[in-house]
Write a structure and sequence with these properties.
Blueprint: E1 7-8, E2 13-16, H1 20-32, E3 33-34, E4 40-44, H2 50-56, E5 59-62, H3 70-74, E6 83-86, H4 93-103, E7 106-109, H5 131-143, E8 153-154, H6 163-179, H7 190-199, E9 204-211, E10 214-215, E11 223-226, H8 230-237, E12 240-244, E13 256-258, E14 266-272, E15 277-282, E16 286-291, H9 296-304, E17 307-308, E18 314-316, E19 319-325, H10 328-339, E20 347-350, E21 355-357, E22 359-367, E23 373-381, H11 382-388, H12 394-412, E24 418-419, H13 426-433, E25 439-445, H14 453-456, H15 469-472
The structure holds nicotinamide-adenine-dinucleotide.
Length: 475
């Protein structure tokens, strides 16, 4: 493990939110960013994490950020060249990005979030509440004329979204090198990456994650258990499922809907992601069912890898979505939550010190190439995570190191305006993250979503094209 300085930062740092990700990233910042700790301020909404802040010698302020108070609270703490790291829930990313732009501060977020309550605001249509719409609201800021040369504002730079967006580029280059089907050097621009994906025959990309971490105390009846933000997971899990919609798909599902604005790279389903299951595969777990939870990377990757012909018609795009098997206790928690008509259990437990074993196998699965499927990602065990950094489990460390790397990249590129992970230097980010990711591997497989099903349920499959979403979805 390295403890080298990645960057020197003379400014002030404000961290909004200090839950599992905030507490996990702070020791990494103190280790790798050369800055005095008395220039760091945490602003959060609950006592949680106070002892960690005290242990690390960092100012901790209990003041929830709201639509009404965010300017009065944050403006005195931020000026030219300072940095705002948003690791909260229920705080509008775009509102904080706008404020940072006005005062000249840099910004990083691991998602794009609305103000609290927006996910369940039924005066908004499902389309208006979607990650697709939230992404468009961040891109609106990028489309404003003063974006050129504006302070860097990185959105969606945790593990997924974030790290996995960079994994896709590495996976494409590995596949090119190992099949000889295309040149294995990094393309210079967005269109080059899309051409590479098309040349490799990629029809589908899953963010395929299997978390096997187990605690010393099993989930109790009436309790929600997870390895990262329970509020965050339930919030996104109750949202309509969303997926980047590929050019090879025969037609959208009966419960699928298109958005009537923006890039048109994605669709949404009229059902919560936490009740939408998909077939997927990781090298260690083999085949499994994951939840198709809405995530920003499903949309941004599909948009990034889109090719259009001269007349503007769609030529190529992969289907992209999350396929998430959280830790087994979280699966039981989701089952119970759904049975209670999506009303949250009375108690919640975010697993950290009580984890006794398990890994987070998090990567991208690229499907459609003749040689088979290719998975590229990180296998990080709880023991490896504990050896590498305090206040982390395997899941949080994959997020926190990516947030650290995004922060370093922003400080190295301070005038890039609004950027998504695809706009950043994937090789630099992967170099920064690798020491904290456990085993980083690429592996081929012969899995398809038809595996065993032709034998068991032949009437249930479309054998003409295994990569149709109708084959991937568990109906
Ligand atoms: P958490 O639930 O453990 O912590 C959330 C923190 O936000 C808490 O400290 C809470 O007090 C604070 N908070 C809530 N409302 C606030 C307000 N109004 N003002 C200030 N602080 C407020 O969540 P977490 O696991 O640390 O996740 C933090 C964020 O990171 C979430 O948005 C989550 O979706 C995101 N996340 C992204 C990834 C990724 O890979 N991209 C992974 C995990 C989490």
């Amino acid at each position: 493990m390295t403890d080298s300085t990645y960057v020197t930062f003379p400014g002030r740092l404000v961290i909004v939110g200090f839950g599992s990700i905030g507490q996990g990233v702070l020791p990494l910042i103190l280790r790798h960013v050369d800055m005095p700790r008395d220039r760091i301020t945490i602003i959060t909404a609950e006592e949680r994490g106070k002892e960690v802040a005290e242990d690390l010698g960092v100012t901790f302020r209990l003041e929830p950020v709201t639509e009404d108070n965010h300017r009065a609270l944050l403006e005195p703490l931020l000026g030219e060249g300072d940095f705002l790291l948003n690791l909260s829930v229920d705080v509008s990313s775009v509102a904080l990005m706008r404020l940072c732009r006005e005062v000249g501060a840099l910004y990083l977020d691991t998602v794009v979030e609305p103000w609290g309550g927006a996910y369940t605001d039924t005066s908004l249509t499902p389309s208006q509440r979607s990650n697709y719409a939230l992404r468009e609201s961040a891109l609106d800021l990028r489309r404003e004329p003063d974006n050129d040369g504006a302070p860097t504002a990185v959105v969606c730079h945790g593990a997924n979204p974030g790290l996995v967006n960079h994994f896709v580029k590495q996976a494409l280059l590995d596949m090119a090198a190992e099949t000889g089907a295309a040149e294995a050097t990094a393309p210079a621009d967005r269109e080059g990456w899309a051409r590479l994906a098309k040349a490799l025959g990629i029809k589908v990309i899953h963010i395929a994650e299997r978390d096997t971490q187990v605690a010393n105390q099993p989930k109790a009846v009436g309790e929600f258990v997870n390895t990262w933000s329970i509020e965050g997971f339930v919030g996104e899990g109750c949202q309509p499922a969303e997926l980047g919609w590929g050019s090879h798909e025969n037609g959208i599902p009966l419960d699928g809907r298109r958005h009537e604005f923006g890039s048109d790279a994605a669709i949404y389903l009229m059902r919560p992601g936490a009740s939408t299951r998909v077939r997927t595969w990781t090298p260690l777990e083999g085949p499994f069912h994951g939840f198709l939870i809405t995530h920003n990377e499903s949309i941004s990757l599909a948009d990034y890898l889109t090719l259009r012909d001269g007349a503007g018609f769609l030529d190529y795009r992969p289907t992209v979505h999350y396929a998430y098997h959280p830790c087994d206790d979280a699966v039981l928690s989701v089952h119970e939550l759904a049975g209670k008509n999506w009303r949250m259990q009375g108690t919640q437990r975010l697993l950290m010190d009580e984890i006794v074993s398990g890994i987070d196998e998090l990567g991208v699965l690229l499907c459609g190439n003749d040689k088979g499927v290719y998975w590229y990602g990180s296998r990080l065990s709880i023991d490896q995570a504990r050896d590498l950094a305090p206040y982390n489990n395997a899941t949080s460390l994959q997020v926190t190191v990516a947030a650290l790397a995004g922060m370093v990249w922003a400080l190295e590129n301070p005038r890039a305006g609004v950027v998504e992970p695809e706009d950043m230097d994937y090789a630099r980010i992967l170099d920064l993250c690798r020491p904290y990711l456990g085993d980083v591997v690429g592996a081929w497989g012969d899995w398809t979503p038809l595996q065993d099903r032709e034998r068991l349920f032949p009437e249930d499959v479309n054998t003409d094209d295994p990569w149709q979403f109708s084959n991937v979805r568990v109906s």
